[in-house]
């Protein structure tokens, strides 16, 4: 079972290490982790995707809360949140494949952001599932390189996980 | 307060935190700080190995309830502290450990005596700081002491690069501003109500008490609650002394080497009130069969402990003392019950005991004699059989009078911790109950004790072996005593004398009392070498991985082969896996 946790942390050296070390020491599995700025310069936001049952989730949340530099820990219910991931994918693009690739790109409302004689770079944004589906479809042409951000997530409506 | 150097600011912080004594050993990067210590009123105890500085600060903290402070230089000095810091972390002891560090411009360059000590200690500290600017010193120290002593206490490390101790700053002690830290102290009224109701409804309650009651100073509230509802009370090793062991409701210690009656009571109970305890595997035995019929109320200041090892029916997050006080307020008096009679029956049928015959000295008798001669003594222990006998055969009554490395089980802890405890409580008699193996792990601290005139009394239960490990080899490895024989080297009396301490020895039962009396009357550091048999066992015992109800009496079982048999009956793989 996958869970998404949003963290507000102090923006200080060593904070990421503490979080990563906690996961490894307690044997929790991180699926993805993103870090980025908030609108307060001394706070950062992390989105961590963890795999585990309810007991694991509870321990993860409580242990994270014990870290002095962690200010807020919130589990984000997928049914009530929006999540987005961005991927850029360098895909092999032979002459005869180009139009099909462009069709896929347009169906996914993705973008082609670079074209060269033998490859293209495709940018896609969306839920993890959507990115995953895009990757699957592009695989037939040959994926040469891929960079994914991991997901960021936010609760719909008025609930705030703010810094 | 004006401009001052980083080093002076550090000492100012220590003064403001009420620190009277620090334990340490200097080195290159600490020269500026030690130069400031030279003029300071704070007493510095020079140890002979940094591990002892951490343990002494820890012993001081446990005996006094204040924050212990130790200091070591960069690189090897800092890494020598690690075992002491980990020991304090596992037992939730408030400690501030300062380490020297290479100058900030050399950090990361593998400079001489550079070690990433904040990285190394991350999993064994409550928090840590690498100070990069002298201006941060007041804030960092204020936070460090606050974090160390509040909530669930623990060690905090402050790494101090040399230039930070030299540079100047404007000193101002700031207010605490830690948005990510709110030690949860106020207990939830509704949870207290639910817990109280469960206690009132229970027919076979047991209160299971850990170190949290000690640190929150909640032992009086515990007695009040237990007496009101007539609930038997058992303690962990860390909780020893929180409930007077001569009290009719006392069950003594539970777990692997606990009393039979404590373990039976837990297994038969219908309600366990766990307070400041963490369901350690040495306490619960096989977790799946722990207290099978019991509802569990768990009171802990650390929410992450609740539900970590066992399922909990009624969680109560908060300080043990206030939770116990609140509970005592709402529960009503209960009469002595058939359950109390049953427990009393177990108590009289299965007392802790040992064979009192023979010409050799019984370690259990040594502890009983110390208890008779000096019932108010502070008992510090090493690790192994000595530790278990000290837990079992001294009647503990005061929470701050039993000091032992429980969570980490650190051999070599006891002697330096005893020095720290004695410095914290100079008017109390302080014993280090030792094994010959453990004592040799920090034997060099005899110099520290002698030079600083800290008259602790070391009682070596000298079996010439690494007794606790040997006991397992005896029971589970067909007496194949691989590397557990110490060959009765050295001669501890001569060692004591070489350091300028008093060395005494007892070899016969009749010598126990006079020798102990001489030790107690002695006003100097005293080492008592008590010769016991290598075959003495700690009993009773729950084999690791077995359920608490499978507790066995070793002396009796040995002859009949009963122990071996029942061991063969439980899952051997589980047993071997859990060995310490
Ligand atoms: C630093 C350390 N090393 C190893 C162990 C494993 N160990 C646990 S008890 C024990 C034997 C202790 O021997 P001794 O101090 O002579 O005490 P005894 O059990 O004989 O009373 C050992 C080696 C430990 N707990 N700590």
UniProtKB/TrEMBL annotation, chain A:
InterPro entries: Acetalactate_synth_ssu, Acetolactate_synth/TF_NikR_C, Acetolactate_synth_ssu_C, ACT-like_dom_sf, ACT_dom, AHAS_ACT, AHAS_small-like_ACT. It comes from the Archaea. Residues 4-78 form the ACT domain. Keywords: Amino-acid biosynthesis, Branched-chain amino acid biosynthesis, Transferase. GO terms for cellular component: cytosol. The keyword Membrane does not apply. The keyword Electron transport does not apply. One of its GO terms (biological process) is isoleucine biosynthetic process. GO terms for molecular function: acetolactate synthase activity; acetolactate synthase regulator activity. It catalyses: 2 pyruvate + H(+) = (2S)-2-acetolactate + CO2. Gene3D superfamilies: 3.30.70.260, ACT-like. Chain A, domain 2. Its EC number is 2.2.1.6. Belongs to the acetolactate synthase small subunit family. Catalyzes the conversion of 2 pyruvate molecules into acetolactate in the first common step of the biosynthetic pathway of the branched-amino acids such as leucine, isoleucine, and valine. This is Acetolactate synthase small subunit. It comes from Methanothrix harundinacea.
Automatic annotation (TrEMBL), chain B:
Keywords: Amino-acid biosynthesis, Branched-chain amino acid biosynthesis, FAD, Flavoprotein, Magnesium, Metal-binding, Thiamine pyrophosphate, Transferase. InterPro entries: Acetolactate_synth_lsu, AHAS_TPP, DHS-like_NAD/FAD-binding_dom, THDP-binding, Thiamin_PyroP_enz_cen_dom, Thiamin_PyroP_enz_TPP-bd_dom, TPP-bd_CS, TPP_enz. Residues 192-327 form the Thiamine pyrophosphate enzyme central domain. Its EC number is 2.2.1.6. GO terms for cellular component: acetolactate synthase complex. One of its GO terms (molecular function) is magnesium ion binding. Its cofactor is Mg(2+); thiamine diphosphate. Residues 383-530 form the Thiamine pyrophosphate enzyme TPP-binding domain. One of its GO terms (biological process) is isoleucine biosynthetic process. Pathway: Amino-acid biosynthesis; L-valine biosynthesis; L-valine from pyruvate: step 1/4; Amino-acid biosynthesis; L-isoleucine biosynthesis; L-isoleucine from 2-oxobutanoate: step 1/4. Pfam families: TPP_enzyme_C, TPP_enzyme_M, TPP_enzyme_N. PANTHER family: ACETOLACTATE SYNTHASE CATALYTIC SUBUNIT, MITOCHONDRIAL, THIAMINE PYROPHOSPHATE ENZYMES. Belongs to the TPP enzyme family. This is Acetolactate synthase.
């Amino acid at each position: 079972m996958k869970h998404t946790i949003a963290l507000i942390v102090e923006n200080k050296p060593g904070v990421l290490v503490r979080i990563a070390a906690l996961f490894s020491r307690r044997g929790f599995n991180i699926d993805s982790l993103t870090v980025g700025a908030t609108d307060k310069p001394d706070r950062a936001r992390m989105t961590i995707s963890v795999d585990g049952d309810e007991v694991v989730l509870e321990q993860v949340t409580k242990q994270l809360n014990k870290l002095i530099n962690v200010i807020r820990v919130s589990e984000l219910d997928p049914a009530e949140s929006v999540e987005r991931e961005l991927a850029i994918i360098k895909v092999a693009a032979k002459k005869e494949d180009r139009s099909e690739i462009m069709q896929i790109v347009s169906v996914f409302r993705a973008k082609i952001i670079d074209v060269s004689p033998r490859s293209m770079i495709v940018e896609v944004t969306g839920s993890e599932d959507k990115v995953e589906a895009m990757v699957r479809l592009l695989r037939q042409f040959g994926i040469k390189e891929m960079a994914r951000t991991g997901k960021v997530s936010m609760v719909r409506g008025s609930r705030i996980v703010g810094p | 307060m004006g401009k001052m150097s980083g080093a002076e600011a550090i000492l100012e912080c220590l003064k403001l935190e009420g620190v009277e004594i620090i334990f340490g050993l200097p080195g290159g990067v600490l020269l500026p700080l030690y130069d400031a210590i030279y003029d300071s009123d704070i007493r510095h105890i020079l140890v002979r190995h940094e591990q002892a500085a951490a343990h002494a600060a820890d012993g001081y903290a446990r005996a006094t309830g204040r924050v212990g402070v130790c200091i070591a230089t960069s690189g090897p000095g800092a890494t020598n502290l690690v075992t002491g810091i980990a020991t304090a972390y596992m037992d939730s002891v408030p400690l501030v450990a300062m380490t020297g560090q290479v100058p900030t411009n050399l950090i990361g360059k593998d400079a001489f005596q550079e070690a990433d000590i904040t990285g190394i200690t991350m999993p064994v500290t409550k928090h840590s700081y690498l100070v990069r600017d002298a201006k941060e010193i007041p804030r960092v120290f204020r936070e460090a002491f606050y974090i160390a002593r509040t909530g669930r206490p623990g060690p905090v490390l402050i790494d101090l690069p040399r230039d930070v101790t030299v540079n100047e700053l404007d000193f101002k002690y700031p207010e605490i501003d830690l948005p990510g830290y709110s030690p949860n102290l106020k207990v939830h009224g509704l949870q207290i109500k639910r817990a109280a109701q469960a206690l009132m409804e229970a027919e076979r309650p047991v209160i299971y008490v850990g170190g949290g009651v000690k640190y929150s100073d909640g032992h009086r509230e515990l007695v009040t609650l237990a007496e009101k509802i007539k609930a038997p009370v058992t303690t962990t090793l860390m909780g020893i002394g929180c409930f007077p062991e001569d009290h009719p409701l006392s069950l003594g210690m539970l777990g692997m080497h606990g009393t039979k009656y404590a373990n039976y009571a837990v297994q038969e109970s219908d309600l366990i009130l766990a307070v400041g305890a963490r369901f350690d595997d040495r306490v619960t035995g096989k977790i799946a069969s722990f207290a099978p019929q019991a509802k569990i109320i768990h009171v802990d200041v650390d929410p992450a402990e609740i539900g970590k090892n066992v399922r909990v029916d009624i969680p109560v997050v908060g300080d043990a003392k206030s939770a116990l006080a609140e509970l005592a307020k709402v529960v009503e008096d209960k009469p002595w019950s058939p359950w109390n009679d049953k427990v009393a029956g177990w108590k009289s049928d299965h007392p802790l005991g040992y064979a009192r015959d023979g010409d050799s000295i019984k370690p259990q008798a040594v502890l009983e004699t110390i208890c008779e001669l000096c019932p108010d003594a502070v008992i510090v222990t090493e690790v192994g059989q000595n530790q278990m006998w000290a837990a079992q055969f001294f009647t503990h009554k005061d929470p701050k009078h039993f000091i032992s490395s429980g969570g980490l089980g650190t051999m070599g802890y006891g002697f330096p911790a005893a020095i720290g405890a004695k410095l914290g409580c100079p008017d109390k008699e302080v014993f280090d109950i030792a094994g010959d193996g453990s004592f040799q792990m920090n034997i060099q601290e005899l110099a520290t004790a002698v030079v600083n005139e800290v008259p602790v009394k070391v009682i070596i239960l000298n079996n010439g072996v690494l007794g606790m490990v040997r006991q397992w080899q005896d029971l589970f490895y067909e007496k194949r005593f691989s590397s557990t024989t110490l060959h009765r080297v050295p001669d501890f009396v001569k060692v004591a004398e070489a350091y300028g301490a008093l060395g005494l020895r007892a070899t016969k039962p009749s010598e126990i009392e006079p020798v102990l009396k001489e030790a107690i009357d002695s006003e100097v550091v005293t080492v008592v070498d008590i010769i016991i048999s290598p075959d003495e066992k700690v009993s009773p015992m729950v084999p690791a991985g077995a359920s608490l109800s499978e507790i066995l009496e070793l002396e009796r079982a040995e002859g009949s082969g009963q122990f071996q048999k029942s061991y063969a009956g439980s899952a051997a793989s589980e047993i071997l896996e859990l060995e310490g």
